[in-house]
Amino acid sequence: MLPNWMRRPFDLARLKDPAYRFLFEPGPANEAVSLDCETTGLNLRKDEIVTVAAVKISGARILCSERFEAKVRPLVKMNPEAIKIHGLRERDVATGRAMAEILPALLRFVGGRPLVGYYLEFDMAMLNRYVRRWLGIALPNPAIEVSKLYYERKYSDAPPGTQVDLSFAAILSDLDLPMLDQHDAYADALMTAMIYVTLRDLKARGVTIPRQRYKGFGDFGAG
Asked: What's the pLDDT score for residue 215?
């Protein structure tokens, strides 16, 4: 598969609606959008989005006043395991709008800004199912994965065999950030934005996240 930057000229040529050429134009300097979706399940072929949220980031500021939230009415049944995760039942999303009604506003909110997320690949794959049907292309936006940024700050120089924990809870705890109502799309997008801003600051200052020191036989005291 071609990387995003190599696909862009081909995707621009295939774009079905020229009104959305703005997706290929750079967004405002130093801005990004934190994105999260909740879904009917984890099957990328069959499941659908039920809520989507996004919040803009400008430099070190999270623009909570510039947020996007939408409830989506899915065309498939909710997986019981998904209900356990996000707590949304079919009747909770029955009043939502069709994704075809929501997508134009979401794309205009995002524009050409990079997308920030936690395991963003899944969210973008879900969104791209709708975007491809409508525009004939996948989202051309650069993708920034916060778990990768966290790995670089904490584990990039770790010795072989180091136990790696990339869970959302571990990242928030390490960065001393609050755990909000996880698996709520807006709360997840907001927490991800906080992670992103914090990790960018650590990188700019050349700060790494300390790891718990492995204790070998010579590291234990006598008492």
From this structure: 47
